[in-house]
Amino acid sequence: MIVKTFPLGLIGTNAYLLIDEESKEAVLIDLGGDYHAIKDELEKNNASLKYILNTHGHFDHILGERDAQEAFNVPVYVHEDDKFLVQNLPKQLERFGFVENALPPENLKTFSEKDTFKIGDKEIKVLHTPGHTPGSVCFLVGKLLFSGDTLFYTSVGRTDFEGGSFAQLSNSIKEKLFKLDDDIDVYPGHDSKTNIGYEKKYNCYFGSNNI
């Protein structure tokens, strides 16, 4: 599977494009900016976008999705507990001091942890990891984890925003993410890639070497 990373939008959020080389199906995770680089990559690989998935509903992860939805004619999904955040995109932007004329995706679809998605013959598993937001999730595709703003390289997501909870975040990381295999690569919502084994040792909040 091809994985392409696109730092986009107002604060450099990582958008991830997954392309199954056999079926030519593609999935986009967290489009926080202009979709044209995504379009170019799809055309380069003769791939077709199937849907847009969101790790959570903060503005910097969803800002480009209304335009992309219209351009590609695909559904947009978010966890049911973060639907309110996506629908309040204009208020989010105002609260953070950004002057943007942006609308949330139309006909927003929701999912829960029991749901799964497919790309080609590969399963995309949903891990509900609340803490950064109530509906924060990570997507597990084989040995690849797309962690949104739950887990970063040597760090974790903030919990001082609306609906955030450090206790929930701690539980999500210790009881879900750190129970995964050490060799799983982690693709976070910001900054560099890491892996579960490294974070178990060196994460500044929960790593065994720092406790």
Mean pLDDT: 94
| Cα-to-Cα separation, first versus last residue | 36 Å
Record field, number of beta strands: 14
What is the second-level CATH architecture? Answer: 4-Layer Sandwich
What is CATH's topology name? Metallo-beta-lactamase, Chain A
Give the CATH class. Answer: Alpha Beta
Largest sheet composition: 6 strands, mixed
Overall shape: it is: globular
Low-confidence stretches: none
Order of helices and strands: EEEHEHHEHHEEEEEEEHEEH
Individual helix count: 7
* Class based on secondary structure composition and strand pairing: alpha/beta
Strand content: 25-35%
CATH superfamily: Ribonuclease Z/Hydroxyacylglutathione hydrolase-like
Strand order of the largest sheet: 1-2-3-4-5-6
Helix content: 10-25%
Q: Give the C-alpha Rg.
A: 16 Å
Record keyword descriptors for this entry.
alpha/beta, 6-stranded mixed beta sheet, 30% strand, 211 residues, Metallo-beta-lactamase, Chain A
TL;DR of this structure?
With 211 residues, the protein is of the alpha/beta class.
Could you characterize what this model shows?
This protein has 211 residues and is α/β, with parallel strands linked by helices. It has one domain (2-210): Ribonuclease Z/Hydroxyacylglutathione hydrolase-like (Metallo-beta-lactamase, Chain A). It contains seven helices and 14 strands. The chain has helices spanning 36-44, 59-62, 65-72, 83-87, 89-95, 166-175, 196-202, and strands at residues 2-8, 13-19, 25-29, 48-53, 76-79, 109-111, 116-119, 122-128, 137-141, 144-148, 151-152, 155-156, 185-188, 194-195. The strands form three sheets. A six-stranded mixed β-sheet has the order 1-2-3-4-5-6, with helices on one face. The protein has a six-stranded mixed β-sheet with strand order 7-8-9-10-13-14. The longest helix has 10 residues, at 166-175. It is globular, with a radius of gyration of 16 Å. The termini are far apart. The mean pLDDT is 94.
